């Protein structure tokens, strides 16, 4: 009996130590995010775009801007400046998510979410909803897919065995 209690205590200690480790991604800097402007495909950082004037933009694009285009550029530039901190990082989570989505982060197969749904069922889906990080949406999607795969396998086994193993 003492061995079982000791084993359960050791397992609880090991399982709880996994949750104590988190990865922090460094903040995204506006000087490291580039967009393509102009006919030649010249790249410019969002920090430079937030600081440039209309004449510089016209030189880069090779097109003369009309009055309302200039106003729209100034307004968008002001919004971009408001979303960039003094140290060059973004202060808006929406922009960071948009940029990460454009880079492909958080897309594709998410093994952790799939196995949460496949091995733990509805409890795994609940766990996927409770974990908050950049991968949450993708993890929840793959948890549901894993749960669906588990249900499909269960239905195939029931249909093949006639309910004998249910």
Question: What proportion strand?
Answer: under 5%
Global morphology: elongated
**Relative helix content:** 55-70%
Radius of gyration: 25 Å
Q: How is this structure best described in words?
A:
The protein folds into two domains: 30-103, no CATH class; 108-166. 62% of the residues lie in helices and 5% in strands. The protein contains eight helices and two strands, in the order H-E-E-H-H-H-H-H-H-H. The chain has helices at 2-18, 46-51, 54-61, 67-82, 93-103, 111-120, 122-130, 136-161; strands at 34-37, 42-45. The protein has a two-stranded antiparallel sheet. Strand 1 and strand 2 (42-45) form a beta hairpin. The model has no long low-confidence stretch (mean pLDDT 80).
Present the secondary structure layout.
Elements (H helix, E strand, L loop, with lengths): L1 H17 L15 E4 L4 E4 H6 L2 H8 L5 H16 L10 H11 L7 H10 L1 H9 L5 H26 L5
Antiparallel strand pairs: 1-2
Question: In short, what is this structure?
Answer:
It contains eight helices and two strands.
Characteristics of this structure?
2 domains; 62% helix; 166 residues; elongated; mainly alpha; 8 helices; two-stranded antiparallel sheet; 5% strand
